[in-house]
């Protein structure tokens, strides 16, 4: 089968902290509702499945594409290493988030811990690109340098978890790397592009003392959170690409994924035997593939199969950016 970029229908998630910017800013099909919090653009995790939107594979889930065209899509990835149960699911998950309210303070386990849970999963290392940030918005990323397990427990029990957290006011274009074990929370007023391991394992450490209309708070996972937290890593600082550099810049190089950004110029992608997740958080870019040129608008996400030949990617304007993610060597 000839290789070509795959586009998918997104899996949309509604919660009380969602808004409308997934539709108005990123073109997601949210309709008239105003509480859409997440758009899972590339996902193969249980019942949550991306469905191919067009082309010869239209209507197939990502899991079905892997089952019938594994090497074409994944290349030489060791599929037994993707899933703790050896089922070979797609190893990464890409999503957009619209945060109208501050999210709960969370921490994710690593692969070893997650594999031992009653419902085994992958661990969850993730990275964020800040698409939009209202004035005064905050990101909480990592613990203050003097916080240990005992002081964090004390802060949580006193309802003062925020005092133990490192925070900063993000700018559009910031990249934040959140390895497994990093305590974190996204503040209100943010739109985020997130690449992560294909996992939905989250331990909630603190929920800002919120209660619902019946006076009930959401469940917390304090003991598990304290157990999996990395107390040595300290505060997490944002990263930014060099505005003078044309072509791809590697912003995150980890053992789970590589995240690249391009903010100007022309470069190539693919033709290396790896799959690549390509998305446009802001503006528009052009993709030239097999002699055809396609313009991708904000919020567009594609999956370039491992069997693809090299394509040319161009960023035509200074208010545009393209993000690409793949597995490390």
TrEMBL record:
The keyword Metal-binding applies. It is an enzyme of class 5 (isomerase). Pfam families: PMI_typeI_cat. Its EC number is 5.3.1.8. The active site is at residue 204. Zn(2+) binds at residues 108, 126, 184. CDD domains: cupin_PMI_type_I_N_bac (cd07010). This is Putative mannose-6-phosphate isomerase YvyI.
């Amino acid at each position: 089968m000839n290789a070509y970029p795959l586009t998918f229908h997104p899996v949309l998630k509604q919660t009380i902290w969602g808004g409308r910017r997934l539709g108005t800013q990123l073109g997601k099909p949210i309709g008239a509702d105003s509480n859409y919090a997440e758009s899972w653009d590339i996902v193969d995790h249980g019942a949550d499945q991306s469905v191919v939107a067009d082309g010869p594979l239209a209507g197939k889930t990502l899991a079905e594409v892997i089952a019938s065209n594994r090497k074409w899509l994944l290349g030489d990835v060791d599929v037994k290493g993707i899933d703790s149960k050896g089922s070979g699911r797609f190893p990464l998950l890409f999503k957009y988030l619209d945060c109208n309210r501050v999210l709960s303070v969370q921490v994710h386990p690593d692969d070893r811990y997650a594999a031992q849970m009653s419902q085994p999963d992958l661990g969850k290392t993730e990275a964020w690109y800040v698409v939009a940030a209202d004035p005064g918005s905050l990101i909480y990323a990592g613990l203050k340098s003097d916080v240990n397990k005992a002081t964090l427990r004390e802060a949580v029990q006193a309802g003062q978890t925020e005092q133990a957290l490192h925070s900063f006011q993000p700018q559009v274009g910031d990249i934040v790397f959140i390895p497994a074990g990093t305590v974190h929370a996204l503040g209100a007023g943010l739109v985020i592009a997130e690449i992560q391991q294909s996992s939905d394992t989250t331990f909630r450490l603190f929920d800002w003392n919120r209660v619902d209309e019946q006076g009930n708070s959401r469940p917390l996972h304090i003991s598990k959170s304290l157990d999996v937290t990395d107390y040595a890593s300290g505060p997490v600082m944002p990263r930014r690409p060099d505005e003078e550099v044309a072509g791809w810049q590697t912003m995150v190089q980890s053992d789970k994924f590589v995240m690249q950004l391009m903010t100007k110029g022309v470069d190539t992608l693919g033709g290396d035997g790896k799959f690549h997740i390509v998305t446009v958080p802001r503006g528009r870019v052009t993709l030239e593939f097999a002699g055809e040129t396609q313009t991708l608008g904000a919020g567009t996400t594609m999956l370039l199969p491992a069997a693809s030949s090299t394509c040319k990617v161009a960023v035509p304007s200074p208010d545009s950016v393209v993000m690409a993610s793949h597995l490390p060597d």
